[in-house]
Amino acid sequence: xxxxxxxxxSICAKPRQVALxxxxxxxxxxxxxxxxxxxxxxxxxxxxxxxGGVYLADAAATAKPSGPRTGEQVYNGACIACHGSGALGAxxxxxxxQWAPRLKQGIDTLQKHAIAGxxxxxxxxxxxxxxxxxxxxxIEYMTSGL
Length: 146
Fold this sequence. Notes:
Layout: H1 2-37, H2 41-48, H3 71-83, H4 96-103, H5 107-116, H6 132-143
Helix pairs in contact: 3-6, 5-6
């Protein structure tokens, strides 16, 4: 009786081993085929490309100017951040009382302080790409009529 049982067990075990071996071979073959098919540079680039991007709605307005900017353009692009509200003690736009002590020093001194920075005002008032003439034009724009 032991012999029959052993034979039956060994006969049943072989189809399972064969099936598992075939299944394993099939899965390895498919995975190698898929991996080999997608290894081109284009396929890799497609898989790792960013899923999104950044779009600036007003990108045209931030383009580099083709020539010197006016005082108004410089003011609206950089100076307004502090001089529009008086932040950090900046004299407000065209406020005669706040600009009077500074104007007494002369436009050259104002320009020198604006370029080099003074107290809480950073150099060039954060307009790092402004020329000296553009800084002067912005000062004249902020103080015109005073």
